[in-house]
Specification:
The chain has 488 residues and is of the alpha/beta class. The protein has three domains: 177 residues, FAD/NAD(P)-binding domain (3-Layer(bba) Sandwich), CATH 3.50.50; 103 residues, FAD/NAD(P)-binding domain (3-Layer(bba) Sandwich), CATH 3.50.50.60; 106 residues, FAD/NAD-linked reductase, C-terminal dimerisation domain (Enolase-like, domain 1, 2-Layer Sandwich). Strands 1, 2, 3, 4, 5, 6, 16 and 17 form an eight-stranded mixed β-sheet that branches. α1 runs parallel beside α9, α3 packs antiparallel against α4 and α3 packs across α7. Keywords: FAD, Flavoprotein, NAD, Nucleotide-binding. One of its GO terms (molecular function) is dihydrolipoyl dehydrogenase (NADH) activity.
Length: 488
């Protein structure tokens, strides 16, 4: 039975597993635990489904899709293309978010056998979570085996004079706004900044991006360069090496003082300048941990306290700062849920690298797609990260515009691919693709990295012609047939 009210307020309830946070990560931990026969409850103060469903992955991609499809049609020969209906795009976004109703996700919890307690959960002792409901009532949940913290992260608002008082947007507002801002200033140059600059400019907002460094600076250099060139071509004012130094909202909009001395007038300012852990009010101090901090975990996602794992406490998803992506949070959740079941039932724990109960890919093979146009799809190490790790890697690039597949796919195609090969082992350790529709290339690269497929074997994985996947053949040709052929 799913609890949603306060009919048992003040009582103490006991479960095998208590999950704090019912976003996509928490849902998956709970699902794995229940599938393993453990009684499980999730605690959620907002909407079941979390940021991904209502303020991040789903609404942002709904906002981006129409503009991307329109440009793809413009690049196809003989297609007559009109403009975008902004209201229709926003209405579609609202449908994708179920109009910010979590009824269907609550129904899934009920059908799966997971209980739900509405309210803010805090640790108040070992294996103990106290939940405060909206009406102020409380109840205490005790865990026989495990408490899993899955409270994610939230947007960081820099300490810029006037920024907080100006009612600036965060990613929540940037994906849920009901109207298109006439003038939008985006503070930041990462994934959220680039995606939302793309989305709102497609909907005819006049967008200016203020970034301290180059765009998408954590990626290969050519990724940020190609995205920047595309944004500028579409009329976005991209300024790098600058930052907002003061922000003030007045009756006619927002005035943004820029560090280079210029001044911008805007209707809204979107802050996309990083994330902070959702641990401020989680009661960590009651169990000897630091409130508001990222949580360190062992390979099976148990929280580390003074370097030692707490045998009943897990931190899964964004708040352990390992790989802050929805799909990686779900991946961690599957491992954590399964290992909780194993420990509760006395089964063997498979904690070797690539074992069932560890999230090895979080360190070696994290795939990510930036849904700008061009798309940026990457997995594993970048060139800079490989060098920092001390690996002897061979780097090969290929111009995607030279492929027959891209020639027929889109007129004026622009893009690039890169492969990183560990010379000592002869395996792929990183790949990046930038271009229209390259997201679908990524899983092949992810399999190559995770499976540590020898480059000599990849020669026999023949790409279909004419497709964009033929870039694999061109990259291998650049490496040469003798690459690591005899190495283990």
């Amino acid at each position: 039975m799913t609890e949603t009210g306060s009919d048992v307020a003040g009582q103490q309830q006991e479960y095998d597993v208590v999950v704090v946070g019912a976003g996509s990560t928490g849902e998956n931990v709970a699902g794995q635990a229940v599938a393993g026969g453990l009684s499980t409850v999730v605690v959620e103060a907002e909407l079941v489904g979390g940021d991904c469903s209502y303020w991040a992955c789903m609404p942002s991609k709904a906002l981006l899709r129409s503009g991307s499809a329109r440009r793809a049609a413009q690049r196809a020969a003989g297609v007559e293309v009109g403009g975008l209906d902004a209201r229709a795009v926003l209405d579609h976004r609202d449908e994708v978010t179920s109009h910010w109703s979590d009824d269907s996700q609550v129904s899934w919890l009920e059908q799966t056998g997971i209980d739900l307690v509405r309210g803010h959960g805090r640790l108040t002792g070992e294996r103990e979570v106290t939940v405060t409901a909206a009406d102020g009532s409380t109840r205490v949940l005790r865990a026989r085996h495990a408490v899993a913290l899955c409270t994610g992260s939230s947007a960081t608002v820099p300490d810029v004079p006037g920024l907080r008082d100006s009612r600036s947007w965060t990613s929540h507002d940037g994906t849920s706004a009901g109207e298109v801002p006439g003038r939008l200033v985006v503070v930041g140059g990462g994934v959220v900044a680039c995606e939302l600059a793309t989305a709102w400019s497609d909907l005819r907002s006049t967008v200016t991006v203020l970034a301290r460094s180059e765009l998408l600076s954590g990626n290969e250099d050519f990724a940020g360069r190609l995205v920047r060139e595309a944004l500028v071509e579409r009329g976005v004012d991209v300024r790098t090496g600058v930052q907002a130094s003061e922000v003030r909202r007045g009756p006619d909009g927002v005035r943004v003082q820029v560090s280079d001395g210029s001044v911008l007038e805007a209707d809204e300012v979107l802050v996309a300048a990083g994330r902070r852990p959702g641990t401020d009010d989680l009661g960590l101090a009651t169990v000897g941990l630091e409130d508001g901090a990222w949580l360190d975990v062992d390979d099976t996602l148990r929280v580390l306290r003074d370097g030692e794992p707490v045998d009943w406490l897990y931190a899964v998803g964004d708040l352990n700062h390992r790989a802050m992506l929805t799909h990686q949070g779900k991946y961690q959740a599957r491992a954590a849920g399964d290992v909780i079941v194993a420990r509760a039932t006395g089964a063997a724990v498979d904690d070797a690298p690539w074992g069932a109960h560890v999230a090895t890919a979080d360190a070696r093979a994290v795939p990510q797609v930036v849904f700008t146009d061009p798309e940026v799809a990457s997995v594993g190490l970048t060139t800079a990260a490989a060098q920092e790790a001390g690996l002897d890697v061979r780097v090969v690039d290929h111009d995607l515009a030279s492929l027959a597949g891209t020639y027929v796919h889109a007129q004026g195609y622009t893009g690039q691919s890169r492969l990183l090969v560990d010379e000592a082992r002869g395996v792929v350790v990183g790949a990046t693709f930038v271009g229209q529709d390259v997201a679908e290339l990524l899983h092949a690269a992810t399999i190559a990295v995770v499976g540590e497929v020898p480059v000599s074997r990849l020669w026999h994985a023949v790409p279909s012609y004419p497709t964009i996947s033929e870039t694999w053949l061109r990259l291998l040709e650049a490496l040469g047939r003798d690459t690591a052929r005899t190495r283990p």
